[in-house]
Amino acid sequence: xxxxxxxxxxxxxxxxxxxxxxxxxxxxxxxxxxxxxxxxxxxxxxxxxxxxxxxxxxxxxxxxxxxxxxxxxxxxxxxxxxxxxxxxxxxxxxxxxxxxxxxxxxxxxxxxxxxxxxxxxxxxxxxxxxxxxxxxxxxxxxxxxxxxxxxxxxxxxxxxxxxxxxxxxxxxxxxxxxxxxxxxxxxxxxxxxxxxxxxxxxxxxxxxxxxxxxxxxxxxxxxxxxxxxxxxxxxxxxxxxxxxxxxxxxxxxxxxxxxxxxxxxxxxxxxxxxxxxxxxxxxxxxxxxxxxxxxxxxxxxxxxxxxxxxxxxxxxxxxxxxxxxxxxxxxxxxxxxxxxxxxxx
Amino acid sequence: xxxxxxxxxxxxxxxxxxxxxxxxxxxxxxxxxxxxxxxxxxxxxxxxxxxxxxxxxxxxxxxxxxxxxxxxxxxxxxxxxxxxxxxxxxxxxxxxxxxxxxxxxxxxxxxxxxxxxxxxxxxxxxxxxxxxxxxxxxxxxxxxxxxxxxxxxxxxxxxxxxxxxxxxxxxxxxxxxxxxxxxxxxxxxxxxxxxxxxxxxxxxxxxxxxxxxxxxxxxxxxxxxxxxxxxxxxxxxxxxxxxxxxxxxxxxxxxxxxxxxxxxxxxxxxxxxxxxxxxxxxxxxxxxxxxxxxxxxxxxxxxxxxxxxxxxxxxxxxxxxxxxxxxxxxxxxxxxxx
Lengths: 345, 338
What we know:
The complex is a heterodimer. By secondary structure, chain A is α/β, with parallel strands linked by helices. Chain A has helices spanning 63-71, 98-104, 116-119, 126-138, 142-155, 161-164, 174-186, 204-221, 232-238, 256-261, 266-273, 313-317, 336-344, and strands at residues 21-32, 35-47, 52-56, 79-88, 91-92, 109-112, 192-196, 224-229, 241-246, 249-255, 323-324, 330-331. Chain B is of the alpha/beta class.
């Protein structure tokens, strides 16, 4: 039984020109004792069905806060969204009632968290936690919901799902727990899946299994996926397009193949150059100098200017807009032309 | 003191089992976690040995045994020819001066209630012969300068520093007693990507200046390759392959090494569809009850009967120039395809 409020949202189907999910000029700030922390300062990105958008950034860049704003799981207060839109199929989620928002969360937009051990409830069995999705959102009976949970555990390839459905989270390994998280998130066939560092806590061989599983589920259901990560390797493996975040802003937007070949922002370029390479073994690694910005005390002008090798006087005073380079690429650097050229030299 | 290229650390058949007990009053041993189960290797002065492997393979336990924080169940760890596992009292204290550690997490490994000067100077309280009382402050400031921090910040507390700076404090503490060997247990994995390169460069510079030998434990294979002269791969308490960095990365012979290398995401989207991917099924077995014979056989695509019956030894196999522990070892370049 679906509740009546779902009719606020357009049903699945044709999208026209509207992307599946569009974040537009989003601002998020937190009131803290030390002052107002502007965690997200005007972030815009969009996602189409079947597409994978990677949001790349370091801790404190605002990548997870943006995702939490989309999911509607920010604690407000202390968080506040003074400005911006999050349009899902053309409807601004920020204007919806709490009840309507609950209908979207989990059903239409779902999320996989980084640390499965702390994201799962330790005192309920995994079967209970997965089947909760069906009981709460679909009003299924306990028995039907548990059967559905077993089906899902099979789908995410947990061996002997029928026997393990009554086990507790601590009885599973890290990779298996992450599979359970994924099973919960895809339970209601969401159209958008947000994966926040889904493999950071896992070993590489298990990471490969999980990324393969996510890609397969995406192919089957044509979900749009937002992959939040700091790992340039994972991004290169799975993403279609990339948004690089720094100091609460997107500094570069590009299709995946372009950004690795010709980065258009000095920060992206610095990150790529600091990856250890076989042919440069024994030499000093390129390192971006300095430290990430303090969100309480952001630099004037461009947030990256204290660390930037391309800095000119106007970078200290003027915050660069997101310059359009081509139809699919943009860079928030006054000197993106020099950055692009420098890479070819 | 050893001279350049001379062997300073020799590990022979090192075993560390943690007992599993049952019962509250009368504890009965019902088994053992075989965290490290027969590991042998050498380390020369000024050299870096990288150790890679997944969580639970025993790399951190190995580090603790090397540091004499855990006593080995059997086997020996010889530093300049003396066994640290058998040393005690004053001798152990003297030997510990020579092997120091940099921890993984710079947020929890520094005491928040002590100033940086106290943290870096603490080794001098224990080993008073290194720096007489009057000189300590100057020594600590020198160390701060060596690791690229402002010597005037000696009275600050850890929370006033960023993650990368804290890791530098941890490194300065490791250097205080002028050791010949430093064990780095995941020294950059807790840091932001843009900061990791700074810390790796610092470690390399210190190695060149002070002729340090590193045991560099990490799971990031590209970082390990960059810094290491030789690399050892561990799986479930055993070393499965050891060799020069180019041998391990370009000519891996053990199936586990091949799977590990192929699973690492490459930061280059070109040819990602064609890249060879060996995706292992399942999780590593429990070290309390490892499989018979070869420990990797339960996840190995080459496994045959002999793998369950006979344990493959770490030795040079036909067709390869470095040691590997597989009955069917065969070099196969998984990274540079096409």
